[in-house]
Specification:
157 residues, mainly beta, 5-stranded antiparallel β-sheet, 14 strands, 50% strand, lectin, Galectin-like, Galectin, Galectin_CRD
Length: 157
């Protein structure tokens, strides 16, 4: 119905509109990103996962490809959670250091992407895992979320 409940139980208008949570998933972020805005992705990792990805992009264009503000990719074979961005068709330097690998096959997870002025802060299951400094200056242009790979989506917000 387009409404989510906030912590006080009263309905609030959802900032994101998603028809069905089917992977691969592509949805619109109303008004784009801005400092203080948070994206929540909840799901369940598949039983025998190879990888899954969550990307925030500037539109949905495939040709030319849309700029990718941040791409998060969980790689189970290497137990890595890598992140990168693609600006004007050029991928930047990949970052992969994490204190631990937070995803477990066949288990639920909660990823929060908090947009702050200089960076994205990434939390998994309530624990801050890493920061990713913005490589795209115009935060409001980041208006699309794409999710693919070996997972089921249970909630987006």
């Amino acid at each position: 119905d387009g409404h989510l409940n906030n912590s006080l139980g009263s309905p609030v208008q959802a900032d994101l509109c998603f028809p069905r949570l089917i992977v691969p998933f592509c949805g619109h972020i109303k008004g784009g990103m801005r400092p203080g805005k948070k994206i929540l992705v909840m799901g369940i990792v598949d039983l025998n996962p190879e990888s899954f990805g969550i990307s925030l992009t500037c539109g949905e264009s495939e040709d030319p490809p849309a700029d990718v503000a941040i791409e998060l990719k969980a790689v189970f074979t290497d137990r890595q959670f890598v992140r990168n961005s693609c600006v004007a068709g050029e991928w930047g330097e990949e970052q992969s250091s994490i204190p631990y690998f937070p995803f477990i096959p066949d288990q639920p997870f909660r990823v929060e992407i908090l947009c702050e002025h200089p960076r994205f802060r990434i939390f998994v299951d309530g624990h801050q895992l890493f920061d990713f400094y913005h490589r795209i200056e115009t935060l409001s242009a980041i208006d699309t979320i794409k999710i693919n790979g070996d997972l089921q989506l249970t909630k987006l917000g």
